[in-house]
Amino acid sequence: GGSDAAKRRAGERAAEEIENGFVVGLGTGSTTAHAIRAIGRAIDDGLDIRGIPTSFQARQLALAVGIPLTSLDTVDGIDLAIDGADRVVDAPDATAHGALIKGGGAAHAREKLVDTAADRFVVVADPSKLTDRLERSVPVEVLPDAHTVVADRLAELGGEATLRAAEQKDGPVVTDNGNLVLDCEFGPIDDPDGLATRLSGLPGVVEHGLFVGVADATYVGTDDGVDVRRY
Ligand code: DER
């Protein structure tokens, strides 16, 4: 991935949006981790906020840095969600401008729930995530029993699905929700919104990594600052 300095600038810049009393959606991955650590430091300086983690990893880090945690059924809403992405469409003239592929960390089901529930959702990224069109594989979280049936349906949609293998565990990656992940190659995705709708309609699909029309802004960390994209 991109440079850690760039990721850190993006994460810390996003954390500056947080105001006292906020409920904050805490994303997953190494870029958002910088925002979570910055929030922890702000809490040490007196900031009063509550966080809703999007994964076991986010929860562990939030606890480690002292962010008081809450849950969706406890709050009246989320003021701001901060999360990373694997790809961000950076093409101002394209209808897909601001569309994301997420799910590299297999956390996209709870991420999409929290990110879309928030009044405002900002992405934090380094330049390596920017693209003028989506052509990376799309992570699809599936019920374990469904993985072959969904793979067949994805093939009918022109996709080639691969069950995501674990690195330090024999067998497949198992998500925080107890499900499996199919990484699906579609080639260049010219209609991400249409594909997102088709994927969501497949029985056995829990969630997919196309986030279309949900991000409000992206903070792109560079080697000497932060660029902001507003959608
Ligand atoms: O899984 C996700 O969508 C995460 O946001 C992740 O892919 C981004 O991870 P990174 O910030 O470590 O690149």
TrEMBL record:
Single GO BP term: D-ribose metabolic process
Catalysed reaction, written as an equation: aldehydo-D-ribose 5-phosphate = D-ribulose 5-phosphate
Catalytic residue list: 111
GO MF term set: ribose-5-phosphate isomerase activity
Enzyme class: isomerase
Domain of life, source organism: Archaea
Pathway in which the depicted protein is active: Carbohydrate degradation; pentose phosphate pathway; D-ribose 5-phosphate from D-ribulose 5-phosphate (non-oxidative stage): step 1/1
GO CC annotation, single: cytosol
Keyword entries, A-Z: Isomerase
Annotated substrate binding sites: 28-31, 83-86, 102-105, 129
CDD domains linked: RPI_A
Gene3D superfamilies: 3.30.70.260, 3.40.50.1360
Entry EC no(s): 5.3.1.6
InterPro entries xrefs: NagB/RpiA_transferase-like, Ribose5P_isomerase_typA_subgr, Ribose5P_isomerase_type_A
Binding partners and assembly: Homodimer. Homotetramer.
Known function: Catalyzes the reversible conversion of ribose-5-phosphate to ribulose 5-phosphate.
Family: Belongs to the ribose 5-phosphate isomerase family.
Protein name from the UniProt record: Ribose-5-phosphate isomerase A
Organism: Natrinema gari JCM 14663
